[in-house]
Amino acid sequence: MTDPAGPRLPSSRRLTHQALIYGSDEEFLAATVPFCLDGVDQGDSLLVITTAGNTDLLREALRDAVNKVEFLASEEWYGTPGSALGACHRVVDQQVAVGEHRRMRVIGEPLWHGRDAVETAEWTRYESAINLAFAACPAWMICPYDTRLVPEAVIADARRTHPELAVGASTRSSPDYVDPAATTGFWERRIAPLPADGDGDAAVLDFDADLAAVRVFVARTAAALGVSPDGVGRLVFSVNEIATNALQHGGAGRLTMRLAGRRLVCDVANPSRRATDWFLGYRPPGPGQERGYGLWAVRQLCRLVEIDTSDGVTTVRLHVDLD
Amino acid sequence: MARVIAREGQERRVDGIGQGDHLCLVYADDAEQRRVVTAYVRAGLSRGERVLYFADARAPREVLGWLRAEGVDPSTALTTGQLSVTTAAVGYLAFGAFDAHAVAQTLQAEVSDALSAGFTGLRVSGEMSWALRDVPGADQLGTYETAVNAVFAGQPASAICQYDARRFSAAALDDTQRRHPGTVELAPLHLNSRLRVTPSFRCGQRMLRVQGTVDHHTIAAFAATLETVLGWPGDVWVDLGELEFIDLAGLRALAQTAARLPAGRRMHLVELAPLLCQVVNLAEFDDISSLTVTARDAA
């Protein structure tokens, strides 16, 4: 497979993506304080997205340098994987456009508390997708994981999603790291069969070129199942994009909608000879690029988006919240 | 000047114009003028109305030629007095100068005359380019257009006042459109059961009105239609308030057209649904400096 990020650039012009696995306030500060102070010295921009507690700790420890750092709350930033990635892109784009700083340093602590299994899996993929999405960006990102709060399995995945680990002021490579585009398909994951956690019957529509019928079906079904008018609009737009792709590849498809806990889940399935990359739509489409806009937008309009190809069928599963 | 342009006034298809209407036709295309004039005069004759036409940029014989080309022989109507095709100098400047109230009164009298002569009503159309010449009283044009609303409203009479957008300023077009209760709709650039794209002038500006659905069925036609916009002078407004649905490819076609406009010209998307404004932002189409987006007010 060719390098998705294009030609290699000097290391300061490329992404550094590290996990900081810490079990105490001291360990958190031992890595983040030198990271920030060093960044201030080097004229890098600094963005810290973390919990209220860690914000307080870091603010106090940084003393005068605190004015050079922008703080945001994890609760605000980490709404959905798609929106977090989109927001990150806009920040990086702005940074590059302004051109004031040589490099951008980010501390980003995702939230894991209260995530169900599907959400946790998708947030893990988000961490992995960062390696592709920002590969060519002059950014240094440290993602803190608090072993006191975060489940062990999530910590183990953090070692797989980050090429490097931050330990105090030093770094070392992560021996468990798995390339997101690995040909072993490590990040490929079969989506759960729908009846597993579904409530009630599924609404099914086999569709062909008549996407107006698809849009009406989605709007009616979603509204009847309790999705807000705003959510219905986002789902109709999203399903239309995915179904348009499906028509281009297979000429027909099947739509399955059902409730799963506090979300409505909508599968768009179509026969497909070629596997679809799981990270499709996590990278913004480049200038002049005709394809790829659809999933990029859909990922930011839906709570979760899963992609899976198996047995010659590609399924894109969209999740939207119920009211 | 990125002001919001609401759908104000009414756009009326020429075949739907009836008694009581006082409309303006703002056009920038000779074929468009010919289409509207021919349809309007022809319908009046077939309904037994008296038709008065005041030519200015055109010669009267040219207008009569349009009718003949459509298979309408005007000679009988000219003989019986049902049809009169003369010049604006006769119709509007009969008093040597333009006198707004005198012309309005004359039209009032023409309505009565037409009925007395046994016609079912009156229809009048005039090419208004005479007002651009150094004519005494031409500054009363606005007063006149407002005054004649009363001549036609509720009466067995109608009028189309023709304004050539290539000659009148945007401010003058804006003013005249505000004074007319409605505008004659221009011929759609694209029309099928799913999508209708119609050019128009609003507030004196070029506007494209998009109605229906832009999805994988109509995207190719929509993108081809947008090519027309590139040839228009100045800024273009696109009214998306009557869309049933537009997909990302449709929004991208608009964005790419905006990006291709020559330097200094802009495309303004107005009345866009809030969700679609969000999509424009997500797709970073709003990074295109020649594109502005105004959301539809939340209902």
UniProtKB/TrEMBL annotation, chain A:
Report the residue ranges that make up the Histidine kinase/HSP90-like ATPase domain in this protein.
209-318
Provide the MEDS domain boundaries: 16-163
InterPro entries cross-referenced by the UniProt entry: Anti-sigma-factor_SerPK, HATPase_C_sf, HATPase_dom, MEDS_domain, RsbA-like_anti_sig
One GO MF annotation is: protein serine/threonine kinase activity
Keywords assigned by UniProt, alphabetized: Kinase, Serine/threonine-protein kinase, Transferase
Protein name listed in UniProt? Sensor histidine kinase
Organism, scientific name: Frankia nepalensis
Automatic annotation (TrEMBL), chain B:
Q: What does UniProt list as this organism's lineage?
A: Bacteria, Bacillati, Actinomycetota, Actinomycetes, Frankiales
Among CDD domains, the record links this protein to: STAS_anti-anti-sigma_factors
UniProt cross-references to InterPro entries, sorted A to Z: MEDS_domain, MlaB-like_STAS, STAS_dom, STAS_dom_sf
Can you give the residue ranges of the STAS domain?
Answer: 207-299
Q: What name has this protein been given in UniProt?
A: MEDS domain-containing protein
Which Pfam families is this protein grouped with?
Answer: MEDS, STAS_2
Taxonomic superkingdom: Bacteria
- Secretion signal: which residues? none
